[in-house]
Amino acid sequence: MTTRVGREAPLTVGIDVGGTNIRASVVDGSGEVLDTVQAPTPQSEQALEDGLERAVRELRTRHRIDAVGLAVAGFVDETRTKVRFAPHLPWEDAPVAHRLGERLGLPVILEHDANAAMWAEYRFGAAAGAHNGVLVAIGTGIGAALLVGGELYRGSYGVAPELGHLQVVPNGRACPCGKRGCWERYCSGTALADSAVEALAIDPMRSTILAREAFRDPGSLTGRRVAGAAQDGDPVALRVLADFARWLGLGLAFVSDIFDPDLIVIAGGVSSSAALFLDEAREHYAASITGARHRPLARIRTTQLGEAAGMVGAAELARAALAPERSDGRRGKGTASRRTGSGSARASARR
Q1: Whether the predicted pLDDT of 7 surpasses 80
Q2: Cis ω for the linkage preceding 161 (within 30 of 0)
């Protein structure tokens, strides 16, 4: 239910700037998405910023907007105004917040997409009430975010944490980042497909579904298709999902040994298939964490806000930037526990 504070808070726009699509949503103070526009992502820097401006201006024809937040899959600098690098976007060392702000006449902030999703889950979703939390977004690769003492942890230069590129297998599978054996090469949608290809190469006759599809079209073995085949009982797909669950549990134990979170949120496209692997991953996590019998284990939940989390989080961070006295993921004086609106009410309800 939207509280009075939620209704009276200014409306802001959160934009998920993906490599394929731009999705922009008007979000109110209770985290509710009121309106959304979507368009393909242009491939040049100028065209991309034109597209972002058009999306916001269209939403402004229907709503009074006070600020804009962009959730970007890439390195955002510590001031949250510049995109240092984004592998699927044309920006490099680009002062995006300044340029877009000048075009729109509105405050604009940037945030890493996983950080934005973590903030949305903390304010309105699965991480409400958490103190120290980790979000692991499993899709093509692994994105991650850290909540420390109720604040987003961005590191010294804005790029923390790159958990997906922790090396878990020395001299393992090659990773696009340039290293080998990164966690995301064994625990991602891409990893599901790669593991299926490897398993079929060893024993193609064990599979009744994936082998047929691989023979017809090798490129059809996406992570989503492997998960679907596992749902249908395909033996190779089930084995691949079991291996995925093991790597997820081991990786989460590794992360927990370092950060000791009280909550872990599993997000990203692969989280929609969590019923196939999450219980087994929890078992591997509990068996692998250091001193498991002598410490509480983190709760492991799946996202509540789903694909909207990045937009909702970016919009909420933009709203907080309008009112510095409110927590925006960086603690100001006296703001550590001042979470207003229905996010606070929801957090209390879940404790």
Answers
A1: no
A2: yes
Closest CA to 81 of 69, 97, 68: 97
Any idea what DSSP says for residue 224?
H
pLDDT tier, 34 (very low <50, low <70, confident <90, very high otherwise): very high
Contact indicator for 113, 135 with CB cutoff of 8 Å? no
Is the predicted pLDDT of residue 342 greater than 50, yes or no? no
Backbone angles phi, psi at 167, to 5 degrees: -80, 120
Exposed, middle or buried by CB within 10 Å (0-12, 13-18, 19+), for 156? exposed
Is residue 284 within 8 Å of residue 255, measured between CB atoms? no
Pairwise CA distance, residues 289 & 240, whole Å: 23
Residue holding tokens 């790597």?
Answer: 247
DSSP 206: G
Going by C-alpha positions, the residue among 297, 87, 244 that lies closest to residue 177 is 87
pLDDT higher than threshold 90 for residue 327: no
- In whole angstroms, what is the distance from residue 115 CA to residue 300 CA? 18
Q: Kindly indicate the confidence band of residue 220, based on its pLDDT and cuts at 50, 70 and 90.
A: confident
Helix (H, G, I), strand (E, B) or coil at 90: coil
What is the structure's pLDDT at 63? Answer: 97
Token pair in block for residue 71: 């959730």
Burial class of residue 231, CB neighbours in 10 A (0-12, 13-18, 19+): middle
Mean pLDDT within 45-62? 97
Q: What is d(CA 28, CA 189) in angstroms, rounded to the nearest whole number?
A: 32
Q: What's the pLDDT at 344?
A: 31
Q: Are 33 and 47 in contact, with CB atoms under 8 Å apart? A: no
The pair of structure tokens assigned to 207 is: 């599979």
What the block records as the tokens of 40 is 């393909």
Angle at 157 between CA 261 and CA 336, to 5 degrees: 45
Per-residue CA distances from 282 to 7, 90, 236, 243 (Å):
39, 38, 22, 13
